[in-house]
Amino acid sequence: MPPTRATFDVFFRQVPDQGSFVVAAGLQQVVQALNNFHFDEDDLAYLRSLDLYNERFLTMLRTIKLDCTVQAVPEGLPVFPREPLMTVTGPIAQAQMLETLILNILNHQSLIATKSRRINFAAAGRPVMEFGARRAQGPDSAVYGTRAAVIGGCGSTSNVLAAKMFGIPAAGTMAHSWVESFNSELDAFRAWARMYPDNSALLVDTYDVLGSGVPHAITVFKELAAAGHQPVGIRIDSGDITALAKAARAMLDAAGFPEAKITASNALNEQIITSLLQESAPIDNFGVGEELITSSSAPVLSGVYKLAAIEQDGQVVPKMKLSASKAKVTLPGRKQVYRLYRPGAHTAFADVIALADEAVAGQPLTAVNSDPLSTHKEVTLTDYEARPLLQSVTSAASVDDVFAIQHRSQTWLRELPAPVLRLVNPDTYHVYLAPQLAQLQAGLLRELRGN
Q1: Do residues 190 and 219 touch, judged by C-beta distance below 8 A?
Q2: In this structure, what are the phi and psi dihedrals at residue 248, rounded to the nearest 5 degrees?
Q3: Of 65, 158, 207, 385, which has the fewest beta carbons less than 10 angstroms from its beta carbon?
Q4: Of 2-6, 29-33, 48-52, 297-301, where does mean pLDDT reach its minimum?
């Protein structure tokens, strides 16, 4: 008898930082992990030593070849609570084994991509460099967190390994220890300029930003200019950054270096960046580390992997989890998600979750709000174009350039209503259940509760 096949959905219920949406990321790493899914003899020996598994099961693991199909939203797409961002269909034992692996990858990268989107939104078009490797929770989190940060909008990284792996520009400036290791700050700046005459970004806050750092930087910039080189700028990593940046800007301009950039760092996040720019701080670039790479204000995306259907006797049987909490009741059946646009328009106004074989093609739909706690329950949707979001993923999926993903993500973000993009008190973007899915869920609720 062939093994029972099942379908699992990956989705989340809450958005970090009280935001409106999550930027999906990690699909390429999921595909790579599934392509390499296997058990070595050492793995099997360890499992055997636990005395928990019989030899038939261990033999199955030795010869396992995944027979699972995957559908997923493309990386960089903004997705909303309760929408499946990935579905896995296959033999139930195989699909169940993939739960932790898939959630680990998608939860982490989507979390960091979402935080990066917030920080880059706050930066209002100014470049943001990812500076977080030293504060990440381990090497893999640093490397793949950098990838996710670029999907969310960052343009460069101080993580050289991530730069190599994903084709990201490597960026950074000198360390305080470099300055401290010389007899004087000016000697340190000159030594740096000799090594990097066309990339001299000088760290000016080791001792005294305005008393020595900026004056010494100006001295070196004049020497570089006299030799035919164009100085890059300065970085401020401590103190009252607004006041220091304003004073430094005036000094640089007066010395004849209006093109020299000012970079700010030092535990920045979207709130601090917003405040700096509201105070008219003349900052050209931001270097953001720990607050980005750990998403420290909201360090967990609680994505889940829930059974949605099984196959019995050739029939797809929908499955649903009940709970005392309405928010934790799941959506049954195999599904598709649609983004709705007005004909000829480029701004989306709602999403619809439907059964996979349910028609959503512009005809009027009496849909139900997917949020079980919403008081705005039912709406009739008319005059729309529906674009499916879940796409089939093959084991030979091409590895997209991370900046191509970033570009697509920014295009999709521009398609959302502006109030949904706000960092504070974003407007609600409605996600609805198509009629057949809503009826199926309601019927299963009655059946499972014995009503």
Answers
A1: no
A2: -65, -40
A3: 65
A4: 2-6
**Spatial CA neighbour of 358 closest among 330, 332, 326:** 332
**Cα dihedral across residues 63, 64, 67, 72: positive or negative:** negative
Q: How far apart are CA 295 and CA 132, in angstroms?
A: 10
Distances (CA, A) of 22 to 86, 111, 190, 270, 409: 13, 7, 45, 16, 11
User: DSSP string spanning 364-423?
Assistant: -EEEEES-TT-S--EEEE-S-EEEE--EEE-TT-----HHHHHHHHHHHHHTS-HHHH-S
- Listed in sequence order, the residues at least 6 apart from 78 whose beta carbon sits closer than 8 Å to its beta carbon are 21, 22, 23, 24, 409, 412, 413, 416
The two tokens of residue 381 are: 């949707």
Q: How far is it, in rounded angstroms, from Cα 100 to Cα 436?
A: 31
Q: What angle do CA 121, 352, 393 make, to 5 degrees?
A: 75
Element of type H or E holding 296: none
Residue 274, SS3 per DSSP: helix
Task: Give 234-267 pLDDT, tens digit per residue.
Answer: 999 999 999 999 999 999 999 999 999 999 999 9
Token output for 96: 């169940």
User: What's the pTM?
Assistant: 0.95
Instruction: Sketch out the chain's domains with CATH numbers.
Output: 5-112+299-448 (3.20.140.10), 114-293 (3.20.20.70)
Instruction: Express each pLDDT in 95-134 by its tens digit.
Output: 999 999 999 999 999 999 999 999 999 999 999 999 999 9
Closest-CA residue to 262 (of 227, 287, 288, 291)? 287
Strand partners, 339: 351, 387
Q: CA 230, CA 208: separation in Å to the nearest integer?
A: 24
By residue count, the chain amounts to 451
Tokens coding 321: 């989890």
